[in-house]
Structures are given as C-alpha cells and as structure tokens.
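Hello,

Our lab assistant flagged a job as stuck in the queue for most of the afternoon. It eventually completed. Since we weren't sure the result was trustworthy after the delay, we are filing this so someone can double-check. Below is the sequence as submitted and the structure that was eventually returned. Let us know if re-running is recommended.
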Amino acid sequence: MQDKKHIHLIGICGTAMASLAGLLQLKGHRVTGSDQAAYPPMSDQLRALGIPIAEPFSEANLQPAPDLVIVGNAISRGNVELEYVLDQRIPFSSLARIVHDEFIASHESLVVAGTHGKTTTTSMLAWIYEVAARRRPELAPSFLIGGVAENFGSSFQLRDGCPFIIEGDEYDTAFFDKGPKFMHYFPDALILTHVEFDHADIYADLDSVKTAFRRLVNLVPRRGRIVAFDGSENVTECVSRAFCNVERYGFAADSAWRVADLRFEGGVSRWNVLRSGEPWAELSLPVAGEHNALNATAAAALAAGQRIATADIVEALATFRSVRRRLEVRGEIDGVTIIDDFAHHPTAIRETLRALRSAYPGRRLWAVLEPRSNTLRRNVFERELVDSLALADRVILAGVFHSEKIPATERLHPENVVSSLTAQGHDALLLENADAIVTRVVPRLASGDVVAILSNGGFDGIYEKLPAALRRLASRA
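-- returned structure --
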C-alpha cells in the first residue's frame, strides 16, 4: 500500500484493531472505523488520535466506499457492514495479514505468545528495547500490543529501528481465515509463556490448542530462538520439535534462566536470575505477582539473547509501569482500593488474586467477576473457577454475559459456582448485573478493603458506577 488510502476497520475498538488503526494512521492513511458500541480504553485512544468511530454498525459507515476494509475477527457473517462489503465487492483483508505485509515484513519479528501473560510480557520487552535505544538508536522498537502499555501511553508504536515486537494472539484471524493470528507473524525469536485450554468457542480441546502452538514453533527458523516457560508440560511438548535453540525460564534448577529468591518488599518485586547456573542479574519490578516476575524474566531472557545490555534490561524493568487493565488501580475512595484486571481464564484470576494478596497483605479482598470471555461463559472450568475465586475473602459473581448465545449444555451456571463457594464456607453472592452489584456491595465496603473487578469487557459500566456510589456514600458520612 504505497499510495495513501482510506482504510475502514470493522470492529475498531478491539485492542489489536485499535492499535492497527493507529499504525496505519502513522503511515499516512486516512483511517475510519466502526463498532457496535465504543468502549475504553481503546475508544479513548482512538479519539485522542482523531480517528472517528461510527456507532453502531451501518451501511452508511461505508459510504462513500473506502479503498480497503479490515474485518475484525469478532465480526461474523450477518454483520450489516460485512454484508455490504461483500455485496459491493469492496477490497477487504484481516488485521494479521495487513500487520505482516505492511509492518513485520521489513523488520525483525519478535513475537510473544501464550495463553497467559503475553500482553504484559510484550509491553516489558518493548520497554526494554526503548530503554536500550537511548544508547543504540537502531534498537528503537515498533510494536503492537493487545493493551495500553503505561510506559508509552499507547498500544502501538512505529519507529525506524529494526525490531517489530508483537503480541502473538492464538485467537482466529477473521471470518474467512480461521487459523490463529500468530501464524502470520513469522517470528525470528519467540517467547512462549503458557499453554492451556482456552478460547472454548474456537478450540475443541487442549490438543487443538497445542497443535496451534506447535505450528507457531515450527515457523521459527534455525537461526532463531525460543524462550519458553519451564513449569508447563504443555509448553515442553509444544517446543520439543523446534528447529532452533530453545531456552527455558522459570524456577527449575536446570533452566537456562532461573528465578531465585523472589520476594515482594515495599511495593517492589525483587529476585535473582541465574543464567546457565551462574549469577546473571538482580531484577526488580514495581509490580506484584509471581506471574509478573516470570513475565519479566522471559522478556529479559529474550532481550539478552538479542544482545541487549544487561544494564538496560535491569533499568527498564525497574521502571516498568505495567499495562492498563492489568492490576490497574482505578481509584482509592474513603480507604477502599478499586482494582481493574482483565480476567479471561481461571488461571489468570488465580494469579491476579495471589498478586493482590502479596501487594495488600492483611486487607479484605473482594473478587467481583463478570463471566464474559468465551471460556468463562462456558462450564469447562467450573471447578477451577471455584478454586481460583476461593482466594478472595468475598466473592460477587455477575450473570453470564450474553448467556443466550451459549448452548445450554455448555453454559456456565454461576449459581453452581456460588453454591460451591458457600458450601466451602466462603462469602459468595450471585447478583445479575452491575447496578445490582453496586447497590448490594457498596454499603458493605469498609476502609482498607480491596475490590478486584474482573472482566475482559466493559462490565456494564461498573468501573464508573462503583466509585461514583462510594463517593456519594462518603459525602453523606
């Protein structure tokens, strides 16, 4: 696309789609987009860029016809704009194909993949390269991340340096390409964090998930590198037939990058890293959670193997500011701390609650969960969900998001989760929506409480409604 074009994105408020919109704008294209309903944080980022968002979907949003339409992977046949594109023979493509052809093809491709941790790890890796570029400008990174990296205030960047750092999503590409997005990214180097069953709407079982990751591993050339978590048999299986060098990271004694003496002190995680059994560096991270220390170690290992100076890695991680919607403090009102976390899987919920326990020791912890992801809306992990939520002192479960779209035999029944928690002696309630949660929960909150709101979507405005209700209550006290 050497000529400047009008490019329209259907489903523009998705994290990756909004990031691509920004990249295309930086290349000089006129970018527009549409979504059923604009929602933050990506709607805020798009508006700041001056990229218009049309709501809701309509044929009128495509008149006059753009030069190219990019169809988001959440868009299915029957969408009014997609049907108009097909009827009018307007050229269209997918996010992953455009990202490869317009951005990755001319750069070194560094891909971060895995069921958990890829957004944070990609942000860490990008920040390491950004810090290193202060002394070596050729390292200035371009990136596309599935979330807003706080160090950059953005989910994307386009620079003149060599690397393109990208979050490798295992979700499908588009209605016409049901393979994973990451199969378009052809990594020169790869981080593989975790492999678990997820995305129950497109993967039949764990074996099909592992097949996807094995195929990604098979794309890495012999000259490339893979940095892979050592604490997962699934990861071990997926990298077992790699043609390139594989370096493991984690807690195992024989790992190439071993985490040792991990502790959380004064709001900072600290640990030592042994490289091939020898002391390499002491790392610090102003973010809680064992999972974040592992993410940072993976990013450090990949960067070190790409000849980034150890001092730059240490400095970058010590100044890392996390990712929006990952353990993000949304406010502290009358002594109540409100946390926003992107929860899509029982394992992620467990690690989030463990991290909050270490960050806020001795404080009463509330877990307020909206089962919204395509995995949590199903009953495949009902027992695991109970175990994860049991780490909180108080549990509030909302109704399943768009439950009518899930077959009854596959649907999560949140009342079963609440009953199981109650039977184990936990304080748990099922409340249908955000308004009901705010009404029942706010009067029960006390100074010192930590409220973790867990959802991978807008949760019916609870992020605004709950703080507003707390402020009203405090003003009357």
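-- support follow-up --
The delay was a queue issue, not a problem with the job. The result is valid. Residues 99 and 382 are 36 Å apart (CA to CA). The first strand starts at residue 6 and ends at 10.
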